[in-house]
């Protein structure tokens, strides 16, 4: 490595050498280092390789001392024996104190992040000079990469059980005293809220259905209901435009036929209702984003700009990009699913993610109700999700169904409680779901539109 290169990039040779020297003197230092330091954090590539060899020895419970490390370094071809012997001896002799190994590791990790920032700045500079992309895309790329460094820096310490128990008891006490504030996020669909106890913070909730059954409409109805509670909702739609989403929300709230938004043939009363609903919805904190082919990293970058956040909705998973090269689409969707769950935990809010179903349920004989295995390109979705819900309308397969407006919401997975099928009323004209009202010998109708 050239001296000029060492002079330019942020690094600490003393800290890197002290880490390796500490491990040679007392291998138990690795207990603290393994949670902080990775081989790629070292600026001197050969030092990183030595650390990797010692880490492997530690993981396999091999004896670690001057002689065994020397043997591994030479066998791996990192240094010749004479040079390795002198280098390792100097490192071990120069260690100020093995008790400070974790502090040395933090120095090395910080220098590594500084070098990454410099690399990102170089990428941003190059993209700006090239002028081959829109400015907003460059800004999103820059923000995403910088926050990626911050995400990887987070390292939660282990918590003793008694501490977790105290926190759990405190939360239950708060829920008992003020359910509205501390319980799960209420969707205003009473049976759904009863089974799930609301959407829990950091939960990944999956809503799936065959095309045309209304999963987007249900997600928008939930967003509207939560927004009207004064909560902040972020909706990422990779399929519909912001204008289409706004039209649906307005139609659902005002009770005006969605088709009339395309023809403009509204009555005087309908114009009044539209104006009143617009005024009400405009006061909510619902944010829309219709950027196509978005990655989770890009979503997180945009979410960080919001002043508050209570619910994230993504429509839908299979249209997202993983942002990395993968061998198959199933692997990509699995990576997206894991990233969505991590996003829910990071922002500590529920994420409602929509998903497509395969045609497997339609090919089955008899009962056509979907199963978790019907999730398209499912991968690890079933494992990552805290709750899985399926929309099903028996009228599609059974023309003699007495209640075509009665939709089943099948809660097929509930990590926090029982599974159950609840019912919703569907109004196709308004693309609206509402609480199901069972009436003897009558077709159930949706609840009336909320007052404006």
Notable features of this structure?
452 residues; alpha/beta; DNAb Helicase, Chain A; Rossmann fold; 2 domains; nine-stranded mixed sheet; elongated; disordered C terminus
Tell me what the structure shows:
- With 452 residues, the chain is α/β, with parallel strands linked by helices.
- The chain folds into 2 domains: 155 residues, DNAb Helicase, Chain A (Orthogonal Bundle), CATH 1.10.860.10; 250 residues, P-loop containing nucleotide triphosphate hydrolases (Rossmann fold, 3-Layer(aba) Sandwich).
- The chain is built from 19 helices and 9 strands.
- It has a 9-stranded mixed sheet.
- The longest helix is centred in the N-terminal third of the chain and has 30 residues.
Task: Give the topology, please.
Layout: H1 3-8, H2 13-25, H3 30-33, H4 45-59, H5 66-75, H6 81-94, H7 101-130, H8 135-153, H9 161-177, H10 179-182, H11 190-196, E1 204-209, H12 215-227, E2 232-237, H13 242-254, H14 260-263, H15 268-282, E3 285-289, H16 296-303, E4 311-315, H17 329-347, E5 351-356, H18 360-363, H19 381-384, E6 387-392, E7 406-414, E8 420-427, E9 432-435
Parallel strand pairs: 1-5, 1-6, 2-3, 2-4, 4-5
Antiparallel strand pairs: 6-7, 7-8, 8-9
Helix pairs in contact: 2-4, 2-6, 2-7, 5-6, 7-8, 8-16, 12-13, 13-15
């Amino acid at each position: 490595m050239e001296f000029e290169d060492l002079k330019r990039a942020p690094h600490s040779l003393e800290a890197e050498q002290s880490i390796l020297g500490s491990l040679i003197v007392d291998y138990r230092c690795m207990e603290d280092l393994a949670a902080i330091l990775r081989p790629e954090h070292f600026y001197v590539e050969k030092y990183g390789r030595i650390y990797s060899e010692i880490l492997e020895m530690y993981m396999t419970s091999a004896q670690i001392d001057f002689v065994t490390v020397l043997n591994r370094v030479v066998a791996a071809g990192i240094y010749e024996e004479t040079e390795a012997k002198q280098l390792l001896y100097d490192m071990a002799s120069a260690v100020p104190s093995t008790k400070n190994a974790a502090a040395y590791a933090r120095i090395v990790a910080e220098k590594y992040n500084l070098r990454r920032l410099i690399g990102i700045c170089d990428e941003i500079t190059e993209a700006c000079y090239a002028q081959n992309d829109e400015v907003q895309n460059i800004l999103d790329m820059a923000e995403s990469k910088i926050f990626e460094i911050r995400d990887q820096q987070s390292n939660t310490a282990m918590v003793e059980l008694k501490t977790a128990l105290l926190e759990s008891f405190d939360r239950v006490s708060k829920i008992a005293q003020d359910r509205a504030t501390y319980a799960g996020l209420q969707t205003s669909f009473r049976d759904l809220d009863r089974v799930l106890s609301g959407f829990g913070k950091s939960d990944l909730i999956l809503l799936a259905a065959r095309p045309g059954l209304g999963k987007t409409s249900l997600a928008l109805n939930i967003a509207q209901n939560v927004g009207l509670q004064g909560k902040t909702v972020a909706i990422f739609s990779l399929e519909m435009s912001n204008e289409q989403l706004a039209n649906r929300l307005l139609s659902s709230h005002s009770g005006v036929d969605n088709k009339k938004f395309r023809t403009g043939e509204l009555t005087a009363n309908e114009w009044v209702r539209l104006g009143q609903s617009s005024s009400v919805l405009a006061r909510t904190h619902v944010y829309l984003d219709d950027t196509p082919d978005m990655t989770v990293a890009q979503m997180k970058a945009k979410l960080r700009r919001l002043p508050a956040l209570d619910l994230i909705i993504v429509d839908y998973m299979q249209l997202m990009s993983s942002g990395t090269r993968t061998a198959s689409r199933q692997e990509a969707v699995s990576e997206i699913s894991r990233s969505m769950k991590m996003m829910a935990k990071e922002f500590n809010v529920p994420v409602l993610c929509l998903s497509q179903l395969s045609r497997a349920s339609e090919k089955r004989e008899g009962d056509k109700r979907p199963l978790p295995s019907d999730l398209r390109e499912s991968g690890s979705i079933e494992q990552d999700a805290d709750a899985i819900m399926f929309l099903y309308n028996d009228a599609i397969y059974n023309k003699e169904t007495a209640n075509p407006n009665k939709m089943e919401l099948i809660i097929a997975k509930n990590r926090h409680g029982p599974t159950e099928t609840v019912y919703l009323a569907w109004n196709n004209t308004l693309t609206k779901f509402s609480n199901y009202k069972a009436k003897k010998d009558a077709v159930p109708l949706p609840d009336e539109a909320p007052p404006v």
